[in-house]
Amino acid sequence: MSRLKSEARLLHVLGVSKPLIARMARRAAANGTSVETELLASGTIDEEAYFAGLARMYGLPFLAEIDPSLLVDHAYSDTQLAEPRMLRLHYSDRPPVMAIAPQILNMEGLAKRFGRNGQGAGSLVVTTPTAIRRSSWKIGEDRRVGHAVRGLFDAWQPLSARLVVTGDQGFVAGAGLCLIGLFIILAPMLAGVVSHLLLSLFHTAALMLRMAVVSHGRRHPVSEARLEHDSEVLPVYTVMVALYREADVVPQLLAALDALDWPRSLLDVKLVCEADDHATIDAIRMAGHRPHVEVVAVPAMAPRTKPKALTYALAGARGEFLTIYDAEDRPHPQQLREAYHAFRLGPPDLACLQAPLVIGNAGDSWISAIFALEYSALFRRLLPALGYHRMPLPLGGTSNHFKTALLRASGGWDPYNVTEDADLGMRLYRMGYRSSTLTLPTHEDAPTEFRVWLAQRTRWYKGWLQTWLVLMRRPLRTASEMGWLSFLVFQLLVGGMLIAALSHPGLIVFLTLLVISLMQIPSPQPSLFTTMMLVMDIFNILGSYAIFFVLGATPMSKSEKTGVGWKWAMIPIYWMAVSLAAWRAVIELRLKPFHWNKTPHRPSRALAPATE
Predict the structure, then answer these.
(1) In percent, how much of the chain has pLDDT > 70?
(2) Three-state SS for 231?
(3) What's the whole-model pTM score?
(4) Could you give the angle at which helices 306-314 and 420-430 cross, rounded to 10 degrees?
(5) What 3-state DSSP class applies to 272?
(6) Burial, 518: exposed, middle or buried (Cβ in 10 Å; 0-12, 13-18, 19+)?
(7) CATH architecture under which domain 187-612 falls
(8) Contact in structure between 166 and 591 (CB atoms under 8 Å)
(9) Domain residue ranges of the chain, discontinuous segments joined by +
(10) Do the Cβ atoms of 501 and 548 come closer than 8 Å?
């Protein structure tokens, strides 16, 4: 309390009004910060004007901008991105000068030593935290972007998707294809029967897993979110949003971030943009200055992907916890508080929490309606069940909440994997960390045009293929690290999803041929095996459609179900479209493995209330 009083006295001498100081002091006491921190975070005083005023009051020189050519880059420079306090400026014609962003309580001592009559006169200048951060980002950009691109590959090459297929995998795949081709040539009928049986069994196993998820949802209904009390002293929380060609949704995004229930002095928002995306950067600047919001410009270097941009910005994250949002997201205002509560009470190995994603435009088209069912099944049924049983979670690309230290320890995001979320979820699990789920949602809109949906889904399937290939480089070692049960669940989830999408048309062809053969006149007496395969095919196809609908519809609210309406009848068409996307992904994986199919976003026409 004596510190706050000392700050208040000095701030009043500087010219800050007593009512404003009193208001900021109450915030500082509640948030465990300083009056100065709350004052700057509130935006009521311009940062540059504040530090310039401090410098004048104590007779020290002020530097508004720092020339990056005066800095020497090294690995420790990144500490100034999170805690910008001081930099050494190297001049060619005079000794080095220390540029500092001081605290007001330290100014008197600094003035005595570095003022006009002090021993160190001329060797210190006052600057702003923003100036220190801006110059630090600039001087270290080549080293930092190089690390973002090569860091995971250099540290853990087997875990990186930079190599699409290893030599061993290529040999095994080539040998397997040769054997399969030889089998088809020598015994085409037997090959067809064996492939039909294997695919049907795999589909049945994946379907049984999803039926178990339905049962889990009935036995373990979602509980209400648990939040921290207002009296709790909160840590710094970093929010990162990767944007590329998103100028149109910037106002909506900033409004959603402004609604987050977290003290501004403890909120570290980083809007991560490509350096040459001037339209988006200009839109952010036009939206108005927010002291807790920083634009991170990522230098151009291939691959130009979202995970590379996020890994680049991770170096400047100052929060104990960190979350990722997409440009079109509208997170529940109290989602950060629920995540903090879960982390604080959870086990030490809990590294990530996935918030549910809820589609707000299900009524716009049949594509968005089925997409809403799909997301509801995944984020409100499947992932909670996996988290409950401490199984690996294929994370979604947004609303992941991390312990920042564990995220860094795991290598961050793979810049070469185009579904970096699922890959990171599996890597965290292999390294001994666990993931779970939250209840407070993030609302976003689904694509409504088939062309946009197909490009997005192709990228997702290409990334899931990359993830599966990475984990299958050393399958025995992967199974040992994950545990055999978790490894099997991974195969049914990721592998099963890939096989189901690629083989779905084949199953329909098999079923059609069986029915045609049984309809021949005179009709042959079907064998027990033929009858069994017919029943299994009908069960797999109709059961997959039914479980898709049940898993998605049961957690939906009444308004969501109204939005879906009759469009659930398009599920069979949707599944065929998914198969098309999967086959396109296989081709893209060969021709352009790291190409990022950008999904365009528009402001939501019907904003879903974040408090639903």
Answers:
(1) 94
(2) coil
(3) 0.91
(4) 50
(5) strand
(6) middle
(7) Alpha-Beta Complex (3.90)
(8) no
(9) 1-45, 187-612
(10) no
